[in-house]
Amino acid sequence: MAQFHNVVIVGGGGAGLRAAVAVAEANPLLSVAIVSKVYPMRSHTVSAEGGAAAVIAEDDSLDEHAYDTVSGGDWLVEQDAVEAFVQEAPRELLRLEHQGCPWSRKPDGHIAVRAFGGMKKKRTWFAADKTGFHLLHTLFQSALSYPDIVRYDEWFVTKLLVDDGRVHGVVAIELATGRIETIIANAVIVCSGGCGRVFPFTTNANIKTGDGMALAYQAGAPLKDMEFVQYHPTGLPFTGILITEATRAEGGWLLNKDGYRYLQDYDLGKPTPEPVLRSMELGPRDRLSQAFMHEHAKGRTIETPYGPIVHLDLRHLGASVIDSKLPFVRELCSKYQNIDPVKELIPVRPVVHYMMGGIHTDIDGATPLEGLYAAGEVACVSINGANRLGSNSLPELLVFGARAGKAAAEYVQSLQTGPRSVVYKQGDDEERRLRHELGRHDDGTERIADIRTEMQSTMEEGAGIYRDGNSLEKAAVKLHELRERFERAAIDDHSSTFNTEIVAMLELSCMLDVAQSIVACALQRTESRGAHQRTDHPMRDDEKFLAHSLVHRQPDGSGRVGYLPVTITRWPPGERVYGR
Amino acid sequence: MSTITMEVTRYRPGEDSEPTVQSYEVPLRKEWAVLDGLNHIKDHLDGTLSYRWSCRMGICGSCGMTVNGRPVLSCASFLVDYAPGPVRVEPLRNFPVIRDLVVDISDFMEKLPRVKPWLIADPPEEGEFLQTPEEMDEYKKYSMCINCMLCYSACPVYALEPEFLGPAAIALGQRYNLDSRDHGAEDRRDVLASAEGAWACTFVGECSTACPKGVDPAGAIQRYKLTAAVAAMKDFLMPRGARR
Amino acid sequence: MTAYRQHIPLFWWLRQWSYLVFVLRELSSVFVAWFVVYLLMLVSAIGDGTYADFQAWSGHGWVLVLNVVALAFLLLHAVTWFALAPRAMVVPHVPPWVVLVAHYLAWIVLSAGVAWVVLLR
Ligand SMILES: Cc1cc2nc3c(=O)[nH]c(=O)nc-3n(C[C@H](O)[C@H](O)[C@H](O)COP(=O)(O)OP(=O)(O)OC[C@H]3O[C@@H](n4cnc5c(N)ncnc54)[C@H](O)[C@@H]3O)c2cc1C
Ligand code: SF4
Ligand code: FES
Q: Are B105 and B149 in contact (CB under 8 A)?
């Protein structure tokens, strides 16, 4: 027996919750459901720290936010989408305020804003340094006031049902019972978040395995700009836990092993005691992470058992600033690193943080596959281009979550026909496949964890901060081999009750797809732009590559890459200037 | 390299009629949280062990377990602190066990909406509600709850009376009651001031001790009792119709 | 789904000091009730003019022991109750310990008043 909803949303993070409410508001008669592999408030949005950008300050303007975003993204940005984004972001953040989000305030009771990397004005709203946590819980709790939104908590989506060029729903497993269900829907919005776990060292939670990208990719929708993976310059060395950019916005310094503010050597401006916007430590993330690699090459980083590090110095900020603006940073440092940033230097190194690429969508979250929408980190509109600016992602979830929800609601109202019987048959086939996965593999020879670890190190070596044709070719070959070995992977667990091993296996399969698409796109793009730096092609090449990569999955898992021109409205490509 | 023994509670419905204990030897490393030990087991020793985790930074609230008798976040408790071992890892108490270390929290998920944990107010026509930092301090700590369920696991009242709304749910109701923007206290009163609400609490205080985020649910409940008592007194002296 | 219901061991309240205090506090309600009964008996004895009999009865060993135990439980109840006061009454700009001290002061003043009525009048 299949379930039915007008709109099914895959994912209960910031984007998914916002989309669900948008559907419910657009048309209260529609049945909308959120299917999420974790309880919505556990989604990874919860760990965002620094803040959310939207213009509210007197001295700021939408144009400046747009320009910072376009130049930050190295012009690989849809400018019409950015214009819509900067315009709608303040409304979305205010909406959250009206729902109770505890945004940090100025003494007079108005919203306070802080500086952030790559932004020319102070425009980042924050809730101390737990912005994502407050944002997600506010969204989740206010969504509870819409009792008609159906939730499938701890259900894992394994497949999108496609017939006749149209999406008709999903197949999902209820983790607690192992029940497999076909969920028919007129439209599906994928909001399943990013894929940082494809790499070994990441700020991303365990659940960020690119499932939604892989589901769409397998269903025939193209992925876009997958070669653009953001490294955040400041993660804790063993865990990869993020130390937010807000530390530098409040005035933190990056020091090499000689205690020298090395960013001044990389065309990022001159060091000043007070932070200067779009300069030095407040430069964009791609440039800061690349500067680290150069320092390392010069032997000016510090070796530790967990790789080379530099230091983040907050000591001069004092306990009171740290406790009021960065309390979580202090908590994380003391718990996970055993240091107190008020008195000690924080060891940090670049860490995989965010996926600029994702499912190709238009400005309303629609993909080329009819009935399929996407929003949030899993999608690529693209407002982030070749490098996302910190604090643009949270407002992006809201703006494009809302847009996708509205567009999907309109789309389902215009529909005349329901699914044909082949769709149900696809659901049955998927159920059979999953039962088979659960049972077979008994005599498999490979361990899931080993394949995963090898995939991760392959990606780091082949497609890290700096890459070249050679390293990427090798990675492609290795990934192909891993894909074959994956077919022989064993699972120990054959229980249908909360089987986390089968989940790990399904996730690994998704990650292999995502990894292959990243490498395929990176190989084809023979230029350097933003977060994609090819040592064999160090220059930006607007002639050939001012275009989005679009990759389609081939039956053998490899990707076919094509290009799509970039929409330019008001800001012609120029040089990215920081600190000058 | 030194190692430590982890004694982990296993329960596989269908196979086991009740929980058993299984021991594993894992490396003892300075940086390793209890969760890293479990991940080592899952990846290298026994793929059948089930538990929840996600953020591994103490913010998603997935990984609550009973470690050496205390409810903790396994991603924020470190193996060295239990050396030389053994470390006993059990599921959170007071919840039904679905499997191994995974407990069923649907009871809380069903109770949470009852306290109406959302802002009840008419937003201003333009701009934001004004709220000074001092006004925010009134409710700030109660807004820090990550729904990790450690407090329910520590609460003997919840163990004996499963109807009890429980620490986190009441604290979240209070979080909105104390928010200067909110006007919903009256709407929440029937639930919060019921026999299964704040009045069921006898102030054991263990919830606040267990809470990893400094929420102090016990304090929230005590405060609410006083508020509710005053409100009830007012109703008695000035019946609703007579007021305003 | 066949979830396993964890049972509560018989001596769960010995697991932790705070649980023991919790159980003792719950138990103290019995003694509070006893005190009320005792007080009513006293009042009625004075009313009936049988106060001397009441006094003699109160001097029995077991009544004395019972009353000492009851006093201990009442003190436990009062002290733990007061300890909560600062958490329940959050007065702006007043530190929690002041609320606590104020409660004890009020207690002492009231007790002194009662003592004065009973002993000196
Ligand atoms: C440590 C950290 C700090 C950050 N700080 C900031 C910041 O300060 N400012 C900023 O703007 N951005 C920040 N970001 C980025 C931002 O937080 C994320 O991009 C954003 O939260 C992603 O939200 P989402 O809704 O797209 O996905 P998520 O919140 O990741 O939610 C994904 C949802 O999809 C569900 N899901 C996934 N796969 C499946 C499946 N197969 N079946 C069913 N459900 C599934 C999950 O259960 C989950 O509910 C930060 C990111 C990290 C990692
Ligand atoms: S109140 Fe504390 S212990 Fe209870 S669920 Fe919230 S964060 Fe966890
Ligand atoms: S894994 Fe998220 S709180 Fe421990």
A: yes
